[in-house]
Design a protein that fits this description.
The protein contains 5 helices and 9 strands, in the order E-H-E-E-E-E-H-E-E-E-E-H-H-H. It is α+β, with helices and mostly antiparallel strands.
């Protein structure tokens, strides 16, 4: 039979997760006589690119000279400048132990602990002119965490901070990472990372090669993270996805950024249009 609804009900082990999750209890195709009538229930998983959203900026941004510029820079780096994201992890592991059974080497295993692998997000991107990204990261480290010389956050020099302003949320941001479904409507996986701050600027080095003009710089910035992957995070991720305006996803319907001929080009008078005009004016009429 062809299954009309291959999706799981949303109860039990799939409670609070992607509503388009295939029902594992329906028939598979790995049998003696493959049955192509149930291909819907055997739709393969395709891992989609992560989407990242800035949820909260570091609190020290509130005390700098231009808080909005700092927030805009961080949001742009996370959401629209980043090319690659790695290091998000939800892997569960059972630690096992057990006594030997007989003399063959067999053991009676029992689980003594369940752990989840920590996430260490890293963002990859090309550096921008003037080392804009590395300069921003260096500013974050020195201003919010500590200068390499004084070992004190340079934000203190603004005179706007007091001892009670400093706690675990002072220099870390909160970022939501979502692995979406094909339609950007449901989160397949989601990680809410707080205490998120850079571990460094990435290599900042100078060099010379007389055989070429210069080189582009491929950056990979690694961040710390205290991560939550609960149903609450899944629901937040679903809400964030459904706020997106899907009408803006079609690049073929976006107006072109150039809608007229440059004035100097127009005035040059020696192109195809001019040639046709001259040809039309000198036509032989018969």
């Amino acid at each position: 039979m062809r299954y009309s609804n291959p999706f799981v009900s949303g109860n039990g082990y799939t409670r609070g997760v992607d509503s388009a999750t295939i029902d594992l209890g329906q028939a598979g195709t790995k049998q003696f006589a493959p049955n192509i009538s149930n291909i819907a229930a055997n739709t393969p998983f395709v891992k989609r690119n992560l989407i990242a959203f800035l949820i909260e900026p570091p609190r020290f941004f509130n005390f700098v000279d231009n808080p909005l510029e700092a927030v805009r820079s961080l949001k742009a780096f996370i959401e629209v400048h980043t090319r690659t994201i790695d290091g998000l992890n939800a892997t569960l592991t059972s630690d096992n132990a057990g006594p030997p059974v007989g003399g063959s080497g067999e053991t009676l295993q029992t689980s003594v602990n369940i752990t989840r692998a920590p996430s260490t997000p890293s963002h990859g991107t090309y550096e921008l002119q003037g080392r804009a990204i590395q300069k921003f990261i260096a500013w974050w480290l020195r201003t919010g965490i500590g200068d390499e010389n004084t070992k004190t956050p340079l934000v203190v020099t603004t005179g706007r901070v007091s001892p009670t302003d400093y706690d675990a949320t002072f220099y870390g941001a909160t970022v939501l990472y979502i692995e979406p479904d094909a339609f950007l409507q449901e989160p397949v996986s989601a990680w809410l990372c707080t205490n998120w701050y850079p571990e460094g600027t990435g290599p900042w080095e100078g060099s010379k090669d007389a055989g070429q003009l210069g080189q582009t710089l491929d950056l990979n910035i690694q961040f710390t993270a205290l991560t939550d992957i609960s149903i609450g995070t899944q629901l937040l991720a679903r809400d964030m996805l459904r706020r997106l305006n899907a009408a803006g996803l079609n690049p073929h319907e976006i107006p072109t950024s150039i809608d007229r001929i440059n004035a100097m080009v127009q005035d040059s008078g020696n192109g195809l249009a001019t040639q046709l005009e001259e040809g039309a004016a000198s036509r032989v009429v018969y």
